[in-house]
Design goal:
110 residues; mainly beta; five-stranded antiparallel β-sheet; four-stranded antiparallel β-sheet; 1 helix; 9 strands
Amino acid sequence: KNTTIHWPDVIEYSQTQVKSKILLEDRNCRYSLISIAVGMHIAEHSSSRNATVNVIEGQGVLTLEGTEIVLQSGVFVFVPATARHAIKAVTNLAFLLTLSEQVGDSNNYP
């Protein structure tokens, strides 16, 4: 199976909803492309799994446990399991979201 992805071919924005497309999934991880149109947001929530946000294009703000982190192309953020977080798109924003197994205590991560 070809697992090569060209971002311009798969990124699409909707003015009415956050777009989430699972690109690949195995027993340990789920890799999803998340596309958020300008002005839209993902309300505060938490997950039982560790996650990473790897910004592909655009700008936004990730609020992680009350701290605002500026998202822009090239930014990588680790979101520990159970951490409260929300995302707001300042421009059209696309990122690769990786959900992994929760392995031990997330405090072991840098």
